[in-house]
Design goal:
Elements: E1 52-69, E2 77-95, E3 98-110, E4 119-132, E5 140-155, E6 162-180, E7 183-202, E8 205-224
Antiparallel strand pairs: 1-2, 1-8, 2-3, 3-4, 4-5, 5-6, 6-7, 7-8
Length: about 220
């Protein structure tokens, strides 16, 4: 019976040897496997709102204060007019580009001549603020503040002046343009106000007084953030 088993594959001839490597100064070939050092990372050029927060603002306002009494012997009256405002805020970034901290805000207005709203008034608020940037590298921001306020008025019509304490609050929006790393400047529109309660001594007995104050303020602002 003939042998039908498969035959072994033919051997593959070995490749012909290449030319020898050129000798080196040391007398034998060398392979260079050094990896070049990576290029240094380019400096970051995108400015971000982050870290320490400091804002100083000043501007003009229109405001009004209404003083009410719980006694017929003390008339109600109103003081309103143009005035000025200043703000100071110090804090830090807690998440993303959201800043929180402490703030002081003061307003004075009135200073007018005759009329039913003649007089001067002021509101000083100390409290906490929050200010957020929807885009961390952009200047648009929105915020608010709540705290304890001291309200005072002095009427030019001869009514009893008022000084009292109560809650105060504010909310704002604005835009800051970059002027340097971490520094920006811009404008801010702010609505603020407060409620306050106090007493007035008239003819040997206390008269309860209350005041409600509002202001619309346009501020110029300098920010480090």
């Amino acid at each position: 019976m003939p042998d039908v088993s498969p035959s072994a594959p033919a051997p593959v001839p070995a490749p012909a040897p290449g030319p020898p490597l050129a000798p080196t100064p040391l007398g034998k070939p060398v392979i260079d496997i050094k990896v070049p050092e990576p290029e240094p990372a380019p400096p970051r050029t995108l400015r971000m709102h982050e870290g320490f927060y400091l804002r100083l603002s000043a501007g003009g306002l229109w405001g009004g204060t209404s003083v009410a009494s719980d006694s017929p012997s003390h008339p109600n009256y109103t003081v309103d007019g143009w005035g000025f405002s200043f703000d100071g805020m110090v804090g830090g970034t807690v998440s993303g580009s959201l800043a929180v901290g402490g703030a002081i805000s003061g307003q004075g207005f009135g200073f007018g001549g005759g009329g039913s709203g003649s007089g001067t008034a002021g509101l000083l608020t100390l409290g906490a603020f929050v200010d957020g940037f929807p885009m961390p590298n952009d200047g648009l921001h929105l915020g608010g503040m709540v705290g304890l306020s001291r309200s005072s008025t002095s009427s030019h019509l001869g009514y009893e002046g008022f000084t009292g304490w109560g809650p105060g609050m504010a909310m704002w929006f604005g835009y800051d343009g970059w002027v340097a790393d971490d520094w920006s400047m811009g404008g801010m529109l702010k609505l603020s106000g407060g409620l306050a309660w106090g007493t007035s001594d008239q003819s040997g007995h206390d008269v309860g007084l209350s005041a409600s104050t509002y202001q619309i303020t346009l501020l110029f602002s300098v920010l480090y953030h």
